[in-house]
């Protein structure tokens, strides 16, 4: 086998970053990204894009921390390069505030973000309903810029982008040697995974250029994230809800919750409503699987189920998927050379 033909199913942040990583790090391979939806129509396009990771019940915390650290280092380098504006990646500082003292005053990711510390009494005076807070600098990844930027990178490395819905991974055999499944919520049907389900999120994108600090309520439900093109106001977490239409009552509720934290938002204008379905799974599924059928074999690397934190860990997760793809390529090359003997 000379060139390994790799198909990546999915063109959200997970699929595109995995495709980019594979084309950079796996020698002698071709990469084709296949998806029924590309930017600006994926869940990743709706994400608020703040880098604050989430713990997954079935993924060990040290693993999530490694993925987050890899992602933070990678995006920090972009943020301090001339690419920062095109990629939509920038540093942002602010406050995470709590109405009661949290179980973990220092979260597992505290030493990855920059300048993490507890808020002082003077800082907390700004939030009279809150008794505890953390302040730090993290990154914001504006996916409306980042996804097109990633697409360009994939193409520049020789990758192809193909619009197509896949009903069964076997459709990709024998045109491809290895399949990487980054189909997010689509994996419920594509690989029959009953453990993945939508967690609906609604948010607002508003113009309020005077807001410079992020504010996040510790429960993660109410947040204000300033960015380069808009300020993101959130949000909701609605389990098993597939409705992609914005709900006007929810938008009003989000707006009033955010105004309670940052009253100057009453003057915000040009308000847009967005809805996305987070691909929730108790743990991220990042593993190799060898499909076999009627004497044929198809190596698959799964990389999906990133729930509420896919942007925060995407690059670390892509690096790990790429390592698994390398192992598949190696074993295909070994069996190809053995069969020639
Ligand atoms: C409101 C909201 C706010 C969020 N905020 C943040 C945040 O601030 N920080 C953070 O880290 N995360 C955030 N997230 C979570 C983040 O958006 C997700 O974890 C991430 O986008 C998942 O990426 P993905 O590539 O797996 O999925 P998607 O972006 O859904 O991409 C899946 C891809 O697979 C394709 N596909 C699926 N099935 C098939 C098929 N059968 N055939 C062909 N193609 C298929 C789709 O077309 C699509 O291209 C937020 C999510 C929401 C909804």
UniProtKB/TrEMBL annotation:
Domain of life: Eukaryota
Keywords from the named record: Cytoplasm, FAD, Flavoprotein, Oxidoreductase, Peroxisome
Enzyme class, spelled out: oxidoreductase
Sequence positions that bind FAD: 43-44
Keyword Magnesium applies: no
Catalysed transformations (reactions): D-aspartate + O2 + H2O = oxaloacetate + H2O2 + NH4(+); D-glutamate + O2 + H2O = 2-oxoglutarate + H2O2 + NH4(+)
Pfam families tied to this protein: DAO
Domain (FAD dependent oxidoreductase) ranges: 5-323
Compartments in which it is found: Cytoplasm, Cytosol; Peroxisome matrix
GO cellular component labels: cytosol; peroxisomal matrix
Enzyme Commission code(s) on record: 1.4.3.1
Co-factor requirement: FAD
Residues holding D-dopa: 223, 278
GO BP of this protein: D-amino acid catabolic process; grooming behavior; hormone metabolic process; insemination; L-aspartate catabolic process; nervous system process; regulation of cell communication
Family membership noted in the UniProt record: Belongs to the DAMOX/DASOX family.
Function: Selectively catalyzes the oxidative deamination of acidic amino acids. Suppresses the level of D-aspartate in the brain, an amino acid that can act as an agonist for glutamate receptors. Protects the organism from the toxicity of D-amino acids. May also function in the intestine.
The protein's name: D-aspartate oxidase
Species of origin: Dipodomys ordii
UniProt lineage: Eukaryota, Metazoa, Chordata, Craniata, Vertebrata
